[in-house]
Specification:
mainly beta
């Protein structure tokens, strides 16, 4: 009798289990929603100078105009214009700026085009404007004599993006500019509209074949000249003003 009872109980349990399995298989799907979260902070470190000819490689400019700026929107480097030496002359003369020099990853010192580099890591591609102004005429170190009528012209300007930059290139990128020695006008070098200019961008003045002819200084023969060193200063300004609102 015990054997019969146990067998009946087992049969009953199997029946219930089978019925339960059938009900679960036909039940509605159950869902639970979860989240993935990440917080991103502003990168205020500024950008690192790269090779204007091969932006995949970092370089150390040996004669930059200042160390660059910091912050999410930065001027990473702007090179000096060191013009070739000349002689006092009563004729119109044109002098070329020497290529800049950089230290490569291998430690070699090599010539590159003069250039300026901008990095926008603010996110959202809000736009920006890079401008340049000459702060007065070239002046002699000893006497303060000015080279009246002298003009700097930047030519063969080319816009280059660093690898991995997926943003649209700045829409304003002139191929040449002539600076005013009185500081009366500001020259736009690069300007990005909204939805442009994210990442790192270079405006280089010539390439390896034209870098020696891309920045020139014209001195009229009628200007009073002395045997001395003449200098002027240039100010590069990067503003958060998008290209479409630039005057």
């Amino acid at each position: 009798m015990k054997l019969v009872k146990y067998s009946a109980a087992a049969a009953l349990l199997l029946s219930v289990g089978a019925a339960g399995f059938t009900l679960d298989a036909n039940a509605a799907d159950k869902t639970v929603n979860t989240q993935g979260k990440i917080s991103l902070e502003a990168d205020t470190s500024g950008g690192q100078p790269t090779d204007p000819v091969d932006p995949t490689k970092p370089v150390k400019p040996t004669d930059p105009e200042g160390p660059g700026t910091s912050g999410p929107l930065s001027i990473d480097v702007a090179t000096n214009f060191n013009f070739e030496s000349g002689k006092v002359s009563t004729k119109d003369e044109t002098y070329k700026a020497l290529p800049t020099k950089v230290e490569t990853e291998s430690g070699a010192i090599e010539e590159r085009p003069n250039y300026v580099q901008v990095t926008d890591k603010r996110g959202g591609q809000k736009g920006w404007t890079l401008s340049l102004v000459q702060n007065g005429q070239f002046k002699a170190a000893t006497s303060g004599n000015e080279l009246a009528g002298a003009e700097i012209t930047i030519k063969n300007m080319e816009t280059v993006a660093t690898p991995g930059t997926l943003a649209t290139a700045p829409s304003i990128a002139p191929s040449s500019v002539t600076l005013s020695s009185t500081g009366a006008s500001t020259n736009t070098i690069l300007a990005a509209d909204e939805d442009e200019g994210g990442g790192t961008w270079i405006s280089r003045f010539g390439d390896l074949s034209t870098m020696g002819d891309s920045v020139e200084l014209k001195i009229p023969g009628k200007s009073v000249q002395e045997a001395d060193q003449y200098t002027t200063s240039l100010t590069w300004t990067l503003s958060e003003t998008p290209a479409n609102t630039t005057p």
